[in-house]
Design a protein that fits this description.
The protein is mostly beta strands and about 250 residues long. The chain has one domain. The chain is about 5% helix and about 35% strand. The protein is built from three helices and 15 strands. The protein has a five-stranded antiparallel beta sheet with strand order 5-6-9-10-15. A hairpin with a 2-residue loop joins β12 and β13. The radius of gyration is 25 Å and the shape is elongated. It starts with a strand and ends with a strand.
Length: about 250
Amino acid sequence: MIYDVKKIGIWQTADSAKGTLAAQTGPVQYPGQIRVQDLNGDGKIDQNDRQILGNFQPDWEAGMTNRVTYKNFDFSIVIFARMGMKVAVPYITADGGAQGFPFFMQGRANQLKVDYWTRSNPTDAFPAPDAGTDRFLFASTLGYRDGSFIKCRSINLGYELPTSILKRAGINSLRVYVTALNPFIFYSPFVKDDLGPDPEGNGYGNAISSPTAGGSVGPGGANGQGRVITVNANNPSTRQFNLGINLKF
């Protein structure tokens, strides 16, 4: 379960002009920073504003294996789905390099391409870059993403040569096949948002805490830590293509 403050966007220049930003007494924030929900309406963001944001466990999982044959051809496909879950993505949390990319959104090294805020690009996706820090307020909220997916695990296409041909060579059977492993993903908000090539968890580590004026806010309690399955910078599921034969004498 994810228990943290809820990101509702990015503070905009219009919020400052209307006085909405000034109404938040703590922590002091500026346009371009992450905006989270003041759950109890007391004008400040602290531990009391945490809420349940989702679950790292899926609502349901399903799989399908289908095999068809036609004359000497055979075809099989395996599809797997996992829906209604969140994943933690530490490398986009701008957490000072503890688990995210070092210098993320500081402009000090080549980094991920993200939709970050500027006055000419008032997005609600990522905060404004800051050369002075890579540990942003409420950074943990950037890392909670929809982990639902429908993917193709494998495809196999084979052809068995006619026995009338094989008998002349003293062969009982010969099947030629091509197999594709993890060839494509049918559906994934994570991939659609260009956050990575595969939404399936490939690590296990601490969820990220978020610094505030009064300490830390995060998914794992007062210290902001919690062991969760993550989608991180490890190698994702590899895509493989194999060509082979099954030969019997």
